[in-house]
Amino acid sequence: MAVGIITDSVADLSPQLVKELGISVIPLSVRFGEEVYRDGIDITPDQFYEKLKTSKVFPNTSVPSPGDFIQAYDKLAEKTDEILVILVTSRLSATCEVARQSIEKMERKCRVELLDSETATMAEGFIVMAAAKAAKSGASLDEVIKVVRQTIPRVDFLAAFDTLEYLRRGGRIGRAQAFLGSLLSINPLITLREGVVEPAGRTRSRAKAIDRLYEFAAGYAKIEEMAVENTACPEDAEALVERLGAIYPKERIHRSRMSPAIGTHTGPGLLLVAVVGDKE
Questions:
Q1: Of 174, 171, 163, 165, which is closest to residue 198 (Cα–Cα)?
Q2: Closest among 10, 53, 4, 44 to 24, alpha carbons compared
Q3: CA distance linking residue 22 with residue 205, whole number of Å
Q4: Top-tier CATH class for 4-153
């Protein structure tokens, strides 16, 4: 069998892509007080964002257990001798560390390698997709790892927020902390750099923030993949997809609702564009 590919639910891959490319997805969990939901299994994005609006309890997330990873490793090891695990940036989550420790506890022995994607959302998803496509074409584990390492620096995203309060509460705000003093009058833009949340600008209106998302994508000379994601603002997302159709075939733009594991830390109103490509 081809190299087995494992990722986490933060990669925001659609069920259709997961099935088509043969990717194993291990969910993070979202907790509202005593209520615990596995991301994408026990709660859908729509259900989560509705609950986020009404719940008096602020949610938090938890990483998969060692047992979750061990079970996934052993199941794939029945079919292949090589497994590659690609996960959300270790600068924001302990998922990588749990996955690494779990390798030694496998019952079935096979070669398992783990790579930190250094990112999240569909930016992570695009890296996983590149690995899965290479694996499906017959590439060896070392060849798939090479594809991933070549893809990581070519992936980027820009996100527009209504508020950074959720990032602040969850402790994931990074250097965007500098924005907090003037949030009433700005629409912040953030990205990830080397796995850490970084401020990427600020605008005076939501419309101008969306303009910046378009300009970000338009700044690429070559685009191989593009995604538009949102938490609870589908109208903004569809309008942006229409605009981006001027620079990239809109039927090829991946559309998704942000996973609950991400939405917990971003809140509603997040709009994001992720790209694989070259700026020169």
A1: 174
A2: 4
A3: 41
A4: alpha beta
- pLDDT per residue over 18-49, tens digit each? 999 999 999 999 999 999 999 989 999 889 98
Taking only the tens place, the pLDDT of each residue in 67-96 is 999 999 999 999 999 999 999 999 989 999
Q: What DSSP character marks residue 65?
A: P
Cα 211-279-13 angle, rounded to 5 deg: 70
Sign of CA dihedral 88, 90, 93, 99: positive
Beta strands in 108-186 (DSSP E): 111-116, 155-160
Phi, psi of 150 (to 5 degrees): -75, -30
Tokens of 9: 């639910």
Taking domain 154-278, whether its CATH number is 3.30.1180.10 is answered by yes
**What is the domain partition of the chain in residue ranges?**
4-153, 154-278
| Pairwise CA distance, residues 149 & 113, whole Å | 13
pTM above 0.90, yes or no: yes
Residue 22: exposure state from Cβ atoms within 10 A (0-12, 13-18, ≥19): middle
Name the 3-class secondary structure at 258: coil
Gap between the Cα atoms of 115 and 3, Å rounded: 14
Please give the Cα distance from 200 to 193 (Å, whole number). Answer: 10
Residue 217, class by beta-carbon neighbours within 10 Å (0-12 exposed, 13-18 middle, 19+ buried)?
buried
In angstroms, the CA 188 to CA 176 distance is: 9
Find out whether 82 and 140 touch, Cβ atoms under 8 Å.
Answer: yes
Which tokens in the block code for residue 60?
A: 């938090």
